[in-house]
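Predict the structure of Disease resistance R13L4/SHOC-2-like LRR domain-containing protein.
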Amino acid sequence: MDSSDAEDNAREVDISMAELRNFDPSALSLSYNFRPEIVQKLTLYGNDLNILPASIVQFIHLRHLDISSNRISWISGEVARLPLLKILDARNNRLNNLPKEIEQCPKLLTLNLSGNQFKVIPTQVFTLNRLKELYLGGNQIESLPPQIQSLESLEMLYLGGNKIFQVPPHLGKLTNLRHLVLCDNKISTIPQELGQLKKLESLSLHKNELKLLPMAIVMLLNLQELTLRDNPLVHTFIKRLEFNTPSLLELAGRVVKTQNIPYNNRVIPKRLCSYLDSAKRCVNPKCDGVYFDSRIKCVKFVDFCGKFRLPLEQYLCSPCDTHEECCGDSKSVSAQMLRKALLPDNV
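Done. Here is the predicted structure for Disease resistance R13L4/SHOC-2-like LRR domain-containing protein.
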């Protein structure tokens, strides 16, 4: 290997899984044969570091710094004196804040803070207006402040696995977004303003509490992937999918029965009288409806002698807004609905 090859290798230094407890550039440069001032990528993945000390400034030409999967709870503000830094990967640590000086990193494009202990997004992040990728998954973030709209260059925003309950309309200002991950939160509504994200290609909303989507979603013409599983709206869709639309005969019969309109075989044909007499009352206690042929199957689990829960089959006149409202057992009913909607009748 000639000197130029050696120098190229020295520009990328990987000290992963080395059980490092202290970050000492002088000692490391001797052990791993590199000069800090020429290193462009430094990987310290999977060690036992508690802090990233001020000595990081010795890596003056660093472009990519990976300190993921350590125990780091503090990053020195000297990281801002790395003028060429483009990628900072600090996922899976113990961070709950960032040094104020990080807002002085002019070329930072990717910031990965997933798997830490953030309860709010550090305000310093909102000054990184060249940032293209921001990962904050697996933290404890509950809300997104209006300042997030300042990150106009963002193309990827990962916020999955937090405690977010509301998506602010300001998110619609991030018009360069291509990938938005909001899965595994507590979100119940999506603002119409998300329809302004014309470049959006993927939107992950699974494992939330969504009951509906705004019409603006159809305006996302570049959207190629939309995940919605494990949301109430999916169960509602399946219920309505399996519900056979009542015939005109049934609809008319329901009106006659629910309005208590009198009838006999001198007014209508005998077969219609028999049909009306066959009406069955909906078992939903909050419903006064009846049904004939078009119905919704519901399984209610009832305690038997305090030892077993027996599945009893019941029928409803139409889909309910919630499974609990109809049958009092959300998990059991949704499982039955999913099975009926997704499997053939003979399975």
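The radius of gyration is 30 Å.
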